[in-house]
Write a structure and sequence with these properties.
about 250 residues, alpha/beta, Rossmann fold, 6-stranded mixed β-sheet, 9 helices, about 10% strand
Amino acid sequence: MKRILGRIRKACFDYSMIKDGDKIAVGVSGGKDSMVLLYALKLYQQFSTEKFEMCGIAIDPGFDNFDLSEITTFCKEKDIPLNIIKTDIYEIVFNIRKEKNPCALCANLRRGALHNAMEKLGCNVLALGHHRDDVVETFMLSMLYEGRLKTFKPKTYLDRRKIHVIRPMIYLFEQEVKSEHKEYKLPLVESTCPVDKTTKRQEMKDLLKTLYKDIPQSKNNLFQVIKSDKDMELWFKNKNFEEADNEA
């Protein structure tokens, strides 16, 4: 866990994620990423120079066999307040709306339920368990399916809700998160979503896996492209400047 905490500390410092007096809600899905983040932030709380409170918020979407009992026990053992919010998301998305592409609506409903719970609990910061591979996957999905160079930011302010969203694990590879989850025997809630493993994101995971195998350096290069604000040779219309062509 030392490496995990070191990377979290660097991300928090680089992007000013946590401030004194923050009350942080960790979005707990029950997956490996959110569980590692929940446990790591509890440990980080002990030595962070910024003093903050934290709790977990788990959204129960109403899927069959969605069992949070092990996570509830874990949180009690670690003295982490856990709030479970029951919803009708499954009923709305799959039975009422009968969405052919349900992920976007499901995500919006989850987000709304999470934000409402934060407001009631007095939390001003939401911590999400996105890691480095998620950053690149989102970037590639946006570029290939939307024609935009975009991914989520390390820290975002939602003005309407008056909350900050932070992603302290952006410097960690998914494999590192998996290893820590296994080593510390953290609980896991297997996904019971009807469309799990059939999404565009899963397709992108598979595509990137092949890309990394064929071009190993691309794994670091793609992340560096996202982090850097330099060496961007793109087209911008109506810019009043001339640039020397070094290749001439």
